[in-house]
Amino acid sequence: MEFDLVIRKRRMVRAYKKVKVEEYKIKKILENAYRAPSAGNLQPQEFIIVRDERVKRELAEAALNQEFIAEAPIVIVVCSDSRRNVWRYGKRGRDFYCIIDGSFSSLLILLSCVNEGLGACFVGAFYDDEVARVLNLPKEVRPIGIIPIGYPDEKPERIPKRPLEDMIHYDRF
After folding, report:
1. Residue 12 has what DSSP assignment?
2. Are 73 and 149 in contact (CB under 8 A)?
């Protein structure tokens, strides 16, 4: 699919058909996410693939009871391992670069899903400690986003955006 069309078609999908997502599509999505830029090319991103119904339910509860997470055929939890950044960038690596790097990967997952005919939703509203407990994450590994994925069972409306002109600013030098 043409890149501009992928971007225009991207929506947050929260209802999924009870259809298994093919492994080759998940692999392709992860190969794209793996190519995300990262500060100093330290690549702190980690991807946890969740198919287990119990784990998906616990993630949904940790995400303020957002049930659609549990209903998705597959969930990818994007995490960042701060140990990969902190040695080089210290506090900024732990508190900023890790989040940005995980976010870059998350966006590539969302766009890759559209390209593969799948729906996805980035969930950032969750209790970090609870997600870490459910996934048994080491303390240095921070969850960045929960991304439920599946074949869409809804057609989300286009949500109006602010005018682009209101978002562009020029320097005054």
Report:
1. B
2. yes
CB distance 59 to 75 below 8 Å: yes
Q: Cα separation of 145 and 40, whole Å? A: 22
CB 148 within 8 A of CB 121: yes
Other C-beta atoms lying within 10 Å of the C-beta of residue 150: 24
pTM of the predicted model as reported, rounded to 2 decimal places: 0.95
Q: Which tens digits make up the pLDDT trace of 25-43?
A: 999 999 999 999 999 999 9
* 142: its two tokens: 């921070």
Contact yes or no for 152/118 (Cβ under 8 A):
yes
Which of residues 173 and 7 earns the better pLDDT score?
7
Starting at the earlier edge strand, list the strands of the sheet with 45-50: 45-50, 74-81, 141-150, 119-120
Alpha-carbon span 5 to 111, nearest angstrom: 10
What are the structural domains of the chain?
3-151 (3.40.109.10)
Task: Please name every residue paired with 150 in a beta bridge, in sequence order, or none if there are none.
Answer: 119
Residues present in the chain in total: 173
